[in-house]
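Problem 12. The chain below contains 220 residues. Write out its predicted structure in token notation.
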Amino acid sequence: MARKVLVLPGPLEGCEARLTRKGNSGIIRVRAGEDQMGRRRFSIAHELGHWEMHDSSQWYACTAANLRDYRVSPEEREANIFASELLMPRFLAEPLLQKPEPTLALAKQAAAEFNVSLTAAAIRMLHLSRHEAILVCSKNKEVLWWVIAKDRFGVWFKSKQHLHPESIACCLENGEIITGVQDVNTEIWFPNTSASFGISEESIRFPNLGMTLTLLTVSD
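Solution.
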């Protein structure tokens, strides 16, 4: 309200949040029924980023993909950086997230500390960490999306790449109970790479969403 923007929940199709600008005032509409307050707060902060920095358009409709886009669209990247700084300021987040190694447990701690989603906290952790790590979301034993902050080894995933049956993520989808960080063979996640590096995997299953979130940490 201090920025002359009204936030309203409402029915939305095809996007998570929407910004409409008219002169010096605007409306941010967020998806009604969103039960994750952290996710809603990041959506609002993302649209505020558009409001503060991008006045060339009077209308933005942002999907879930836009809310994790740090590589493709310059405007979506800027809005995400704005939201991350607003909700997880560097001077507070850096001492917490620059630990010896990134872990999902550390991301959970940050999510609770800053009242954001686990995904938003994990992505912030990737960008602040000194380690190279990849966050992967999978569903129905296929890679749904992935985020990487650094790319020293040129790793990548095929579209809808199938999970290897020996990956922890696949084991969780099969109903097995596996916790903690474990070293895994590089070929399990990156069968097409010729680079020489090791990886550790940590995965968490969200049965209500039918999705699995995996943190892969790369080491020489």
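Discussion. The chain has a mean pLDDT of 89. Students who got a different answer should revisit the alignment rule from Section 12.3.
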